[in-house]
Amino acid sequence: MLILQRRKGESIQIGEDITVTVTEIGTDRVRLAISAPRDVSIKRTELLEAAQINQEAADTALSASAFQQLLKNPKNKE
Amino acid sequence: MMKKIETKYCGTITYTPDELIRFPDGLFGFEGLHDFLLIRLEEDAASPYCLQSTEDPNVAFIMLDPFDLVPDYAPDLSDEDCARLGDSTGEQIALYAICVLREPMSESTVNLRCPVAMHMETRIAFQVMLGGDNGYTFRHKLSDLVPREDSSC
Q1: Predicted pLDDT at B111
Q2: Residues A7-33, mean pLDDT to the nearest whole number
Q3: Chain centroid to CA B90: how far?
Q4: What is the pLDDT of residue B147?
């Protein structure tokens, strides 16, 4: 993995036509400006993972026994 | 006006439009689905919920009350999240956690990082993305959170 240090206002170039610029640096977050062709998909990584998990949750063909186990599991047991 | 739907888990049920929960942005990965029903799987208070799409009968999520799983669950909703839910105080917002159920049950997980947040009066809901720094992950094992049935043996 390539690791680079950049200051506010500096940028990196990825391939021919993608530019990522650091526009703001806070205490625990940075703001990035990304310039890329329209057909390049740019998403926050955690949103991809969230979509993947929702898909798994929706794809679950819940068996009767799993259902029963879930229903009888006492969640408020002391 | 009563409507009828064939649900994924609960057979055929009837509902009225005012029972619908509206997700203006859909859910992550399901951005095109906006209307859902919140169905209790059983009568008792600890029962899981089913979030059933009325637009696609094949789409349904099993959800649990995160506070039943983690009593001190304290998701830090952003000001932006509260604003789009229309509740700056957060008092009218109910939270639900989506489960991925697998067999054996020990493989099942619950997503505490992306709870469904619903305004109880307006019935507007969003699936929110909590910050990565609060300790809640996408895949908490249910078996680590739910007391085991046979723990007294």
Answers
A1: 97
A2: 95
A3: 17
A4: 59
Of A56, A57, A73, the CB nearest to B149: A73
Q: Is A71 in contact with B9 (Cβ distance < 8 A)?
A: no
**The pLDDT value given to residue B153:** 46
Chain A nearest C-alpha distance from B113 (Å): 9
pLDDT of res. A48:
95
Distances (CA, A) of A52 to A47, B108, B122, B144: 9, 15, 29, 22
Q: Which residue of A has its CA nearest to B66?
A: A75
How many degrees, rounded to 5, is the angle at CA A18 between CA A16 and CA A20? Answer: 135
| Peptide bond just before B104 cis, omega within 30 deg | yes
Q: Residue B141 pairs with which residues in a beta bridge? A: B109
What is the predicted pLDDT for the residue at A77? Answer: 41
Task: For chain B of 153 residues, list the mean pLDDT of each consecutive stretch of 10.
Answer: 90 94 97 96 82 96 92 89 86 93 85 96 95 89 71 46
Question: Do the chains contact at A63 and B139, CB–CB below 8 Å?
Answer: no
In the prediction, which pLDDT does A73 show?
63
Residue where the block lists tokens 């991925």: B100
**Nearest CA-CA distance, residue A33 and chain B, Å:** 20
Chain B residues in contact with A67 (beta carbon < 8 A): 9, 41
Chain A positions touching B65 (Cβ under 8 A) are: 75
Burial class (CB in 10 A: 0-12, 13-18, 19+), B84: middle
As given in the structure block, the two tokens for residue B146 are 């739910």
